[in-house]
Amino acid sequence: MTLTSNLGGKTAIITGSNSGIGLGIAREMAKAGADVVLNSFTDREEDHALAAEIAKETGRRARYIKADMSNPDECRQLVEEAGACDILINNAGIQHVAPIDAFPSEKWDAIIAINLSSAFHTTAAALPHMRKAGWGRVINIASAHGLTASPYKSAYIAAKHGVVGLTKTTALETAEEPITANAICPGYVLTPLVEAQIPDTMKEYDMSREDVIRDVMLKRQPSKAFATVEQMGGTAVFLASDAAAQITGTTISVDGGWTAL
Ligand code: NAD
Fold first, then answer.
1. Which of 16, 159, 177, 241 could hold 115 in an S-S bridge, CB 3.0 to 4.6 Å?
2. pTM of the predicted model, to two decimals?
3. What does the angle CA 170 – CA 175 – CA 179 come to, to the nearest 5 degrees?
4. Closest ligand 1 atom to the C-alpha of 144?
5. Contacts of 13 (CB under 8 A, 6+ apart)
6. H or E segment at 140?
7. Is 156 a catalytic residue?
8. Cβ(188) to ligand 1 under 6 A?
9. Closest CA to 232 of 247, 208, 259, 253
């Protein structure tokens, strides 16, 4: 049997994909032949323009659908509005950095809703489509922080450990079907989310931007290099390929050696 990583005829929904890792994954999925559905909670001209740009670059169908991943109904509506979901990539995420005793409750709730609960709701809506199509891939974007912890990121780390647990359960519930569920655990990737953490971390540690990048962010990343959004996209394409058909219920770290420490 010839194995393929051509995703022609498949539809991939990528949550939180109007920037950063999600957008990088959407581009790589479309390059591999998939039709793609981009998403975020905004409905701006530039959001739709991103989808048009991907369609033009790759010749695939690309659409942008607004849905707020903090709202369970909108998570499920995203899948229904897309009409098909062969590949579900749960990527939407936010961050907040503060010690537990000063961590605002509303930030905790928002992070758990967007980074964890949304993946439950979209997966619940997507599995019937995958079962009907007789094929499916759930790819959850967790984090090195789904496997290890750091101070001041309690909600994010709880959510990402939760995503790893949800991934394993999804894999077991679909184990006898041609559906897999896995989590990608990126180390530091320089995206708007990481960029936004730099000022708070500079304040927290009283350090310059350069020192925060080298001594705090990349301190635990032995490669001393940020991972790229293209590498996340390539890993997602691999997990969607035939070669990965027996890879399920696991995590794949793309973290420059972080979790080997
Ligand atoms: P980013 O801020 O560039 O992207 C986050 C995306 O989520 C954006 O498209 C944003 O619009 C979307 N989003 C936020 N709130 C949303 C909501 N309520 N509804 C729908 N979409 C929403 O950040 P990123 O670094 O690309 O992060 C993407 C994912 O990768 C996140 O889950 C993050 O935790 C994870 N991650 C990132 C890194 C990193 O170093 N950048 C490392 C590990 C894991």
1. 159
2. 0.96
3. 75
4. 43
5. 36, 37, 39, 78, 79, 82, 85, 87, 88, 89, 122, 126
6. strand 136-141
7. yes
8. yes
9. 253
User: Is any ligand 1 atom within 6 A of the Cβ of residue 20?
Assistant: yes
Q: Is the CATH number of domain 3-189+227-260 3.40.50.300?
A: no
Angle, helices 20-31/45-58, rounded to nearest 10 degrees: 30
Please report, for residues 167, 191, 199, 200, the alpha-carbon distance to residue 181 in angstroms, rounded to integers and kept in the order given: 6, 25, 35, 34
From the CB of residue 60, how many other CB atoms can be counted at a distance below 10 Å? 21
Instruction: Choose among 186, 217, 221: nearest CA to 201.
Output: 217
Nearest in space to 127 (alpha carbons), one of 138, 142, 117, 140: 138
Residues 173-184 as b or e (16 or more Cβ within 10 Å = b): ebeeeebbbbbb
Query: Angle 229-240/20-31 helices, nearest 10 degrees?
Result: 50
Residue extents of the structural domains in the chain: 3-189+227-260, 190-226
Ligand 1 atom with minimal separation from the 192 CA: 3
**Closest C-alpha to 65, from 85, 241, 237:** 85
Quick: pLDDT tens for 92-150.
999 999 999 999 999 999 999 999 999 999 999 999 999 999 999 999 999 999 999 99
For 38-64, what is the mean pLDDT? 98
pLDDT, tens digit, 9 for 90 and up, residues 83-93: 999 999 999 99
Three-state DSSP class for residue 137: strand
Residue 236: burial class (beta carbons within 10 Å; 0-12, 13-18, 19+) = buried
- Mean pLDDT value of segment 166-178: 99
Centroid of ligand 1 to alpha carbon of 114 (angstroms): 9
Coil, helix or strand at residue 200:
helix
